[in-house]
Amino acid sequence: xxxxxxxxxxxxxxxxxxxxxxxxxxxxxxxxxxxxxxxxxxxxxxxxxxxxxxxxxxxxxxxxxxxxxxxxxxxxxxxxxxxxxxxxxxxxxxxxxxxxxxxxxxxxxxxxxxxxxxxxxxxxxxxxxxxxxxxxxxxxxxxxxxxxxxxxxxxxxxxxxxxxxxxxxxxxxxxxxxxxxxxxxxxxxxxxxxxxxxxxxxxxxxxxxxxxxxxxxxxxxxxxxxxxxxxxxxxxxxxxxxxxxxxxxxxxxxxxxxxxxxxxxxxxxxxxxxxxxxxxxxxxxxxxxxxxxxxxxxxxxxxxxxxxxxxxxxxxxxxxxxxxxx
Length: 326
Ligand code: ADE
Ligand code: ZN
Prior knowledge:
- The chain has one domain: TIM Barrel, CATH 3.20.20.
- About 45% of the residues lie in helices and about 15% in strands.
- It is of the alpha/beta class.
- Strand 6 (about 215-220), helix 11 (about 230-235) and strand 7 (about 240-245) form a beta-alpha-beta unit.
- The two termini are about 35 Å apart.
- The longest helix has 17 residues, at about 75-90.
- The protein has helices at about 25-35, 45-50, 55-65, 75-90, 100-105, 110-125, 125-130, 145-155, 180-190, 205-210, 230-235, 245-250, 260-265, 280, 285-295, 300-315, 320-325; strands at about 10-20, 90-100, 130-140, 165-170, 190-195, 215-220, 240-245, 270-275.
- It has an eight-stranded parallel beta sheet with strand order 1-2-3-4-5-6-7-8.
- The radius of gyration is 19 Å and the shape is globular.
- The structure holds adenine (ADE) and zinc ion.
């Protein structure tokens, strides 16, 4: 007898995805060639062999270095289209995508080049891939508060293309409170607010993201479990946490996927979603992350459906569109 066909992947929303973290070795080498840039790796395999990280900073060093191949509007559009094709194959119907403008402007790439390239691909995404999208502009928290403010002001002509601002890069020593002013400006301009907090940093940073930045979602937030009062707050307000299981293993936030607190977070009543973070570096896209936790944590189909449903509940989709997924 023929085996039953594999079911199509669950429809889901991806809410924690750095577009620069979708740069696969194959595209990195192609763009290096196109732009006449010499990479410090002879082959794709040699580059891939460097994807063994001791912590967040160790990953960030490689992540920022490889971005050197991204120079033109076409580069950003090609990167985005490559991501959308992979995402669609894994059941993604809606993607809220981070980008790091300061990582590009610091290399002399204009913010308009970045945003024009990304939005050229995103504007066609619904038609081409059946994926609706939102764009989230992140500030690098290991850069100064002034640099974040300058970045926000330089993005003013493009604010209608942005759904939200976010905060990423090296967390410890760079608390959310450092960015109070730029978040106030973003909210004033009508943008939603999210921030990475509680990945490597303490629960106090999650409190600051909530109370000082006024975030609508917390990215990662896994260390919130260390603070009972914080969990109570996140549950009471149903603040979404965009958890990234494979990332947490690769960056040694958790030792093994079998030890990941995802189930404990769900059991605590937290609004948890499963996401891929930097899939080209961490071993998988959204569907791969769902598959990995299904196996490692022995999640049943009902729990997987809760996770998929949470991803739409936690999204910035318009209410009517969101309701159609629930
Ligand atoms: N930038 C890209 N991926 C990140 C992560 N997991 N944490 C903080 N900053 C990031
Ligand atoms: Zn992230």
